[in-house]
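[Meeting: bench + compute handoff]

Bench side (C.D.) handed over the final construct sequence. Compute side (W.E.) agreed to return the predicted structure before the next meeting so the bench team could plan truncations. Sequence as handed over:
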Amino acid sequence: MDSIYGSIDDLYLFYNVVEEGSLAAAAKKLNVPMSTMSRRLTALEKRLSTNLVQKQGRELVATEDGQRIFDLLRCGLEDLESNFAKVRADNQDVAGNIKLVIPHKLYRSRVSRIVEQFLIDYPKVSIELVLSQEQSFPLTQRDLLISFDLTGAEDMVARPLFRAHHAFFASPEYIKKVGKVKTIDRLAELDWLSVDHVRDISICEGNALVGRIEIKPKLVINDVMAVFDAAERGLGVASLPLMHMDENMNLVRVLPQYQRKPRQAYLIYQKRRYQPQALSILVDRLIHDAEAMK
């Protein structure tokens, strides 16, 4: 299709020059000789009677007129690419590899059945599970992380899953050794067991925030069940998720009128305009399950 803009290809060429920041990079991306790129861009500027790009340091950037045209093109091209990607996805089998990093106990209690059913429904997908409390941020477009900590995830997608409610527990033997705990200040002074290096803990009574304590963990273990075990054996006090509590555990609640501020769990993955279909489906299932359990 020809018009005052020349062919559609010329507009796409200009769009890529601005997006890549140079003729050379755009030529390489489009597999077009740089001389051809330069000639067609110059012809487009001549037809429009304006300069579309200008040098800024080592880069080519859009002029004011060029930026207006670029913004219009970007909206249209993103819609086209999105629809083309959907057409391709609808006509392809769901396949590929996914890596999921998640705390061990959380996987067993909430996520295992979702993953197992997903693999049954999509036999061409394979999943690598890393059961760990450690932060391992997604490095590729096929990586997922479930975590309570958003530190370092500012440039990623972080979707809320659920809120974990915690209270404070210790063994009867430990409480007998240290004496009855009557105040928040005394709670802070105890031997703390933790799954991470968080030092500041917000204390709530009901839904109201009533204080904050600073703790000094005696033992840090990157597995919540190992923290449960250490608390049962009388090594100290711990902030433990209520969803993992069992009445047969050798634990008693400390200051039962108080609890830790609920911790938000997030599903974290890389920002990308088009996610692999397998990853998108698994993300949707995890989000749907979390919403159903609220």
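W.E. noted at the follow-up: Confidence is low (pLDDT under 50) at residues 1-5. C.D. will use this when planning the next construct.
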